[in-house]
Every structure is written in structure tokens, then in C-alpha cells.
Amino acid sequence: MADWPQETTIAAFKRAWTLEGEAFWTTVFSMHQGKMQIKSPKVAVANLQKIFEATFKLANAKGFQAMTLRDLSRETGISMGGLYAYIGSKNELASVIEGVLRTYIDQVIGELVNEGLDPIARLRASIFGEVFMIQILNPWYYFCYMELKGLDREQQEQALDLELRFDSLLVDAILAGMKQGQFSCEKPKLLAASITAQLQQWHLKQWKFKLQEVSMEEYAEHIFENLLLCLSYRR
Amino acid sequence: MADWPQETTIAAFKRAWTLEGEAFWTTVFSMHQGKMQIKSPKVAVANLQKIFEATFKLANAKGFQAMTLRDLSRETGISMGGLYAYIGSKNELASVIEGVLRTYIDQVIGELVNEGLDPIARLRASIFGEVFMIQILNPWYYFCYMELKGLDREQQEQALDLELRFDSLLVDAILAGMKQGQFSCEKPKLLAASITAQLQQWHLKQWKFKLQEVSMEEYAEHIFENLLLCLSYRR
DNA sequence: GTCTATACAACGATAGAC
DNA sequence: GTCTATCGTTGTATAGAC
Question: Which backbone phi and psi does A226 adopt, to 5 degrees?
């Protein structure tokens, strides 16, 4: 996993995880290859990317339910009949998007658990890692957040469970730091939930951060510094 | 305005603002009386309440676009033809909900500006007031948050502007406290945005707070205490 | 693999009886 | 004021040519 999460920079993060470019879309293709008719990867990967990106553009602008397959056909340049060689049904498209994102998040936060870092480094890596991930997969996160209630209950529960596991990751690091006498905190669970809320803002409130000209690194640093203040940590 | 915002309790808040019961719905009725055919308040108020509450139940469960007017007819017990005596169109219904909520929020945050409270009391009143309001009007807030992108651009912009004005309210109090030497803060705007994010969680993440058995007062107090820590405030 | 043409259900909205 | 019945439109999905 290269030098992430020891080095909390976007460059190191990108080196460790393939979340962009042709290699990324090839992985996405292989993840639900069974559910589509097209067998040739050459043509499938390119069209899959087109379909997903058009879905993000349309659904994130006016909502997935309001987006029609006629819209999607126009935006991708693929006919309506053609789309069904890739997606099975409209609802399945949303379901696949959520599934792919959750799989990737699972991998990244799994890595954070295994590392033997000290509490402060763990908090820093968790915060920066999540902001990096949201930055790279911005439309995925926003889509899944806003369209979650359109999915079936099982998938909804898995998404909420994932958020709780991320919260737990933070709580564990906070408790470890308290044991070492570095931190002081009365309600670790609530503090963790508040960190998660601030992280999610990076995709929910992009309009605000663009308006205030806040960079990704500045934002992550701000969350981390305020967390240390809330933990009464002294350098 | 009674004893609010000097006394930051839900009881004082409810005494100052009418946000529940028949009196509240009568006000809602009067707010868009012009847009509906029914003239008799007696019958209109009761049905209006039924329609709004059924809309929240259905739309907050599966999305406003996914909710059909046939669903709404079934849930309210009013026929489809009957509904149109109250709502003009489906989209107008969403628009009215957003308009009503924004009007009320405008009034409450307007009151917070006029008060001559010291910085700490202003922050406390802003945080507790917003949590109280979200608590009472929970389905309204959740609906407007999740369905905002379905409204026309003008209404979207007004909603975002309202959020920015609330942020400014917090920023002003923080700057006032810094001038008095009570607070220290490098990025007041970002800190304010993070407070707003945490407040919005009270309607966005009700599932989490129920799971953790967190009370409204406990949550508001937690946000307030952590804010003071972030401001390096010493009692 | 991709297209055109079309099936068929469901939607929002309205007319007119009561 | 409220209902039933129905209109016209648009949605998802598929069949079959190429």
C-alpha cells in the first residue's frame, strides 16, 4: 500500500488506491460483469463509464427519480435499447453505483484498521483519507447520499452500517488516546459523529466551499485541528 | 417574544413561537390561501394538515418524485380530484412546503440578530434555537433538505442564501467574542459552517441518535461545548 | 452490439356530476 | 367541496431488424 497512510497527502493516497482513469473503470466493469450482456471489455468499459458519468450529471442535478432513461440515452449518445445491454433496469443502475462505492470504502477503511499507528496519526489518516476519497469520487458519494432511500432496505442498512463502522474507527482511536493520557473527551461517540458530519460536507456543500475558496487540504486540516482542540490535546 | 432567547429551553422556545397545533396550521393556511380554491377555513385547515403530513410521511420515506398523487390520495383519504382543490399541482406542493419553512426560519433568525446579547449567549441561543426548531419541524427540514434540487433555481438560491445568513450570524458572534478577547479562532467561516453541519445532523441522522439514545438537549449542549473548546474559551 | 419501433402501465391533471 | 371517470402524456422496458 505504498506510503499511505503514513504520509497523508493526496499524491500518496492516489498511489495506493486506483480510483481514477481506465484502470478504475476496468475494475468497475469486472465488478458487475455478470449482470450485463456485453462480453467484450473493450467496448463495455468505455460505454459503462459514459453511462455512469451521465447518470451522475443528470441525477445529481435533478434527482435520480426525475432523470428518465430518455435523458440518459440523449446524454450518453446510446439508444434506449442499447442501454439495456448494460444496466438490466433503472433501479439496478442505482443499486450498482451504491455497491461499487461501498466496496471501495470498505477496502480503504479496512486498511486503516490494520495499521499500527498511534492515535493521532490514526485520526489524521482517517480524516485525510476520507476527504481524499470524497474528493476523487465526489459524484459517487453525493449520489449515494441523496438517493439512498430509493434503494431496497437491505442496501440502505448496509450503507448505514458502513457509516457506523467509520464512526467506530474514530471512537477507537479517541479511546486509545485517552488511555495514553493524550486526550480528554466526555462523549467520544458524539464527537465521532460530528467528525463524520463535517467530512460529508465536502461533497454535500461544495457550493459553499467554492464560494469561500476553501481547498481540500485546508478543509481536512481544519477538521483535524478542531478535533484536537475538542480532545484538549496539547502538543 | 417572552423569555426566549434569554432562556434557552424548549419550553421558552415553544412559548415564543407557534410551531405546532391548530394555531400553527391556521397560519400555514393563511400563507397560501390565495393559491387554493377552498375558501372555508374550517374544512381547509384540517385537510391541509392531512395533505402536508401525508406528503412528509410518503416523500420522506421514498422521495417526493417517487411519491405519486395516487399514494397521497390513499394516505389522506381525499380523492385525486379533491386534492387539486388544495394544491394546484404536485410541484407547487413541494414549493409551498419550502416557502412556509423558510418564512418561519427567517423570523426566528431575524429575532436572534436584534437581541443585544453577549457573544456566548448569542452562540448558545443560535445553537439551541436551531436544534429546537429542527426538533419541532423535523419532517419539514428533512423534506426541504432532500428535495431542494427538485425546486426551481430561484427557490434553491433563496434556501442556500438562508443557510449562508445563518452561518454569518455565527461568524458575527465569534468575531465579537474575539474582539472582546474571549475567543481565539483562525477560520471563523469554516467553524460556523461546521456548526451548521452538526445542527443539520439532528434531522439528517435521526436513526443514529435514536440508536445512541441521545436527547435533543444533550446534543445541543454537546455542539455548544465543543464550539467553546474550538474557540479556546476559558470559563 | 446497437439500433428503431412499439407495447403497455402509470403518471399528473381535468371535466362534470352530485 | 368532493367525488368518479377519463384524458393525454410520458415513463420503463422489450422485440426484432441490422
Answer: -65, -35
The CA–C1' separation of A64 and D8, in angstroms, is: 25
CA B17 to chain centre: 13
pLDDT of B4-46, one tens digit each? 999 999 999 999 999 999 999 999 999 989 889 999 999 999 9
Cα–Cα distance, B72 to B80 (Å, whole number): 8
Nearest to B63 among A149, A201, A214 (CB): A149
| B150 secondary structure, DSSP code | G
Superfamily of domain B10-230: Tetracycline Repressor, domain 2 (1.10.357.10)
What pLDDT is recorded for position A1? 58
Residue B114 Cα to chain centre, angstroms: 19
Q: Tell me: the pLDDT tens digits for A121-162? A: 999 999 999 999 999 999 999 999 999 999 999 999 999 999
Residues with Cβ within 8 Å of residue A75, at least 6 apart in sequence: A54, A57, A58
Of the partner residues A61, A197, A230, the one whose CB lies closest to the CB of residue B197: A197
